[in-house]
Amino acid sequence: MAASMHGTQTAANALLSIRKLRKSFGAIEVLKGIDLDIGRNQVVGFIGASGSGKSTLLRCINFLEEPTAGEIRLEGELIGFSDRGGKHTKLSSGEISRQRRQMAMVFQQFNLWPHKTALENVMEGPLIVQKAPKAEVEERAVGLLKKVGLEDRLHSYPSRLSGGQQQRVAIARALALQPKVMLFDEPTSALDPELVGDVLRVISQLAEEGMSMVIVTHEMHFAHQICDTVVFLDQGVIADIGPAEHIFGGTTNKRTLEFLSRYLERNG
Amino acid sequence: MQSGYEWDFGVVLQYREVFLRAIGTTLALAVTIIICGMALGLVLYLLRANTWRPVYLLITAIVEVLRAVPPLVLLVWIYYCMPILTGLSLNGFQTGVLALSLYSAAFYSEIFRAGFQSIEKGQIEAAFSVGMTRTQILRRITGPLAFQRIFPPLVSQCVLVIKNTSLAGYIAVAEILYQGQQISIRTFRPLEVLTIVALIFLAIILPLTFLANVLEAKYRKKYFG
Ligand SMILES: Nc1ncnc2c1ncn2[C@@H]1O[C@H](COP(=O)(O)OP(=O)(O)OP(=O)(O)O)[C@@H](O)[C@H]1O
Ligand SMILES: [Mg+2]
Questions:
Q1: Domain termination residue (choose one: A178, A200, A217)
Q2: Residues A12 and A80 occupy one common structural domain
Q3: Does some domain include residue A31?
Q4: C-alpha B51 – ligand 2 centre gap (Å)
Q5: Position A108 in a domain
């Protein structure tokens, strides 16, 4: 797959660059200084124990959480703050909304809007946020739902869709924004095992098409298959990082090996 | 042991014009109170959702006091004490509107709060993540979702408001119950009069709750069928 073909990109042309990122909730520091560059067309996977800060990191990237310190840049643009005059001041909520449009998030619990059909869920962003013409938006939305295999469920409300179908609508909704990067937070963790495959296939296809993605996952086999880089997060720091072959093969990092063997025990 | 009572609606029905005018007054009171109460309730809810602690505490205190005080006390207090304290005196109708709007606003604000709190946080985050602004989210996502959940308790509260308008009779507002009492004094037919009063309230409230049930069932079927 796309692995290592692109090599490591330097900070200057990275799509996302994260520097000295820290995040505390009250007295508890959850992220303790994260440094990472993510290149264009790359798929970066985050693995790690529950509570290690994976979701928090993802949520900081699109500013659903405000970092306590450090910075995140998308194509060089500082997220959430203005750095004019060397001082960081928080951007207006309108500006933050504009930045968020460039990143799309797919949640563990799908979070579809229950009062809108599959099609309306997908159209909402482009229509309301990007204010694109309706006919055009609809055509694109139908195309996206086709792409995720739901052309026959356009007018279904979320309550009538299975978890796997809901998650695929959520992926279409994210794609509709034509984002620069897709952020996935355990996209298959809430699904019945037999529904996981459909969702992973859609994500794999996106990887093949060169979509830049950050994926938090507990599906090690999947991470091994599609990720260019895998990051092992342990208690708020990057404990191990490298190409998928490194994490799932070559690593000698004790914590990584421990984590993976515990995972294997549980999942056979 | 026979009950010697003979029902006679005829004499009471001679006063139907009075009843009709009273119905007008009651409806005017009810509609005004519902509109003012809801608007004020929304303001109270929004102020209470304010993160600044002093504002939150103040509004919470106001809401709790309004909810705990009997509405009749509020009514009488505003009618008789406000002129003494502020020099501002309102007529009966205005007093009824003010007191009962304040009273119902406390309940409306609680209904709004419960409605908005019941929305899953993830659905709001999803809206933020597609880049919607706060106002867009209120208009497109949380507003409609909250409304669907708020609708049934909102209707119940409106029914209570309609019934509570009869308290305004206490300060001589010529609403249905007040006029009923006047008529029963004149006709010595309190049972007939009160029966008619009850029927009038039924005729106002039943269609309302029926319509509400139909609407609710329709939306349930649409989204959750
Ligand atoms: N809003 C919050 N307020 C307080 N603590 C929080 C908040 N969000 C997360 N935390 C804490 O931060 C830590 C990291 O949480 P996070 O959700 O990032 O972990 P995770 O790696 O995604 O775990 P999981 O695999 O269970 O999803 C946890 O201890 C969690 O309790
Ligand atoms: Mg998580």
A1: A178
A2: yes
A3: yes
A4: 27
A5: no
Evaluate whether A64 touches A72 at the Cβ level (below 8 Å): no
- Which residues of chain B register pLDDT less than 50? none
What residue has token string 């007018």?
A155
Amino acid occupying residue B48: R
| Binding pocket residue ranges, ligand 1, CB within 6 Å | A 25, 30, 48, 50-56
Residue-wise pLDDT for A38-77, tens only, equals 999 999 999 999 999 999 999 999 999 999 999 999 999 9
Q: Which helix (H) or strand (E) holds A203?
A: helix A193-208
What are the start-end ranges of the H helices in chain B? Answer: 10-13, 16-48, 53-68, 71-76, 82-86, 92-117, 121-129, 134-137, 143-164, 176-187, 190-224
Whether A92 and A126 map to the same domain: the answer is no
Residue type, A157: Y
Structural tokens at position A33: 């200084």
Length of chain A: 268
Six-digit token pair at A212? 């830049």
Residue A107 lies in a domain: no
- Per the structure, the complete domain to which residue A131 belongs is given by 113-178
Q: What is the mean pLDDT of residues A120-142?
A: 95
Domain count, chain A: 2
CA distance B201 to B213: 18
Nearest CA to ligand 1 atom 18: A53
ipTM, 2 dp: 0.89
Q: Which of residues 68-97 of A touch B (CB under 8 A)?
A: 93-94, 97
Query: Are residues A139 and A13 located together in one domain of the fold?
Result: no
CA distance B204 to B199: 9
Q: Give the closest ligand to the alpha carbon of residue A234.
A: 1
Q: Residue B63 and residue B66: Cα distance in Å, rounded?
A: 5
- pLDDT tens across B98-137, in order? 999 999 999 999 999 999 898 999 999 999 999 999 899 9
